[in-house]
Amino acid sequence: MEIERINSGILGLDELLGGGIPRGSIILVAGHPGSGKTVFSAKFIYEGAVRWGEPGLYVSFAESEEDFKKYMKTLDLDFEPLKDRGLFKFLSLPTIIDSYTIEQSIEEILGIAKAMNAKRLVIDSITAVLKTLGPERTRALLHTALIPGFKRLGITALLIADLPYGSTTVGMGVEEFVVDGVLVFKMERERGMTRRLIEVRKMRGSRTLIMEIPFVIMPRDIIRLLIAAPLDSVVGFEEEVLSTGVEGLDELLGGGINRGAQVLLVGPSGSGKSLLALQMALNMASEGRRVLYLSFEESTEQLRRKIMRLGYGDPGSIPLSLVNINVTAHTYDSLIAFTLRLIDSKKPQVFVADGLGEVMKAGDERAFWASTTTIFNFLRREHITGIHTYAARYPEETVPLDTISDIIILLKYERKGDRYSRKIMVYKHRGRTTDTRISGMVIDGRGRIRVVKG
After folding, report:
1. Model confidence over 65-106: pLDDT tens digits?
2. What's the rounded Cα separation, in Å, for the pair 159 and 154?
3. Residues 6+ apart with CB under 8 A from 222
4. Rounded to an integer, what distance in angstroms lies between the CA atom of residue 119 and that of residue 290?
5. Burial grade of 418 (CB within 10 A; 0-12, 13-18, 19 or more)
6. Are 140 and 270 in a shared domain?
7. Which of 47, 289, 389, 415 lies at a CB distance of 3.0 to 4.6 Å from 284, suitable for a disulfide?
């Protein structure tokens, strides 16, 4: 029998859970203070009401309705219209002081949930309940009152619990065994900035990966999981071939670049990587393809002046978006999220990332590889052709991107006497046999690149 699932509203989570959270599940949401538990739960309620018309009840033992709505509105979650339509209710309950207060609170929660026909419910938080009752009475409460009550009403519920720093056990350690799912939120510091992680520790009815997945909190998306696309969803590149528009380069590539392929331009500083990437981007945009050009080294004004010098005219006349990113202002996670959001909004057919070596310097190699793999796989899945530049004397120097790139174009210098000349070759071309001989690369009077034999 197929399990009915509901969308959580969290980008990446539903895919991870095989289509969403099983309807009627009771999920424990545990985490460090400030790790995103409340935002996650609020988005769960909001998404159900806005997208699916499912009434939601948010119960808080610590926060007022006014403070809750004020904070959520900063994240573009406006609950007031939902309240007016009967799709949302906020219930503020007194602080738990004894077992009698707990029983009264549960009766009130179930009564209101039934009256409004709630389909989604959040209790924020159950930590005080756990401390008041202790392990055995907590288990009894969950088994005999809370969980059966929610199941009877067909409610999918999130129970929020605090996870002290350094602790691996949630609450009293018993609630993990009686709920249907456990999501653990964690917070770390990376280069002085906050990094958030989520672990799907348990989810009945779903095949899950026991791993920590980074996520970010931002307006509009609210929460977005940063996980590479599953291998079975990453398609190969298309048969359609894109011309680079660079004289002599298509011939080296055996005709051009397959749509959806990820191309790495690698070479030492000054070898012409950025110029080649920009020229390819401009040629493709001039043919009407939407191009998103991200630079980690040059400002958008510098890029515009360079485009004018190359003789392409006003960059605003072609479908080209220029964006500069300050790497030092981001963690790898926020950088991925920012990039994915740009791709979502610009919907490019060609994506250029110039200066990935600068991104690498901002962190460690393993995190950089994981981040770029996420981006590469996303681009492949969306059939977006990627052009990426990385400064290195390859193959003498290690480049973390070489194994995940479909095409590697190697740029280098060659010295003859007291003069240097630029050289270019196709070092790798996945799925195609190409000419691997070294060719010359000339920059003409306009500043444009052309590839010449020998």
Report:
1. 999 999 999 999 999 999 999 999 999 987 766 777 888 889
2. 16
3. 9, 10, 39, 43, 75, 76, 77
4. 42
5. exposed
6. no
7. 289
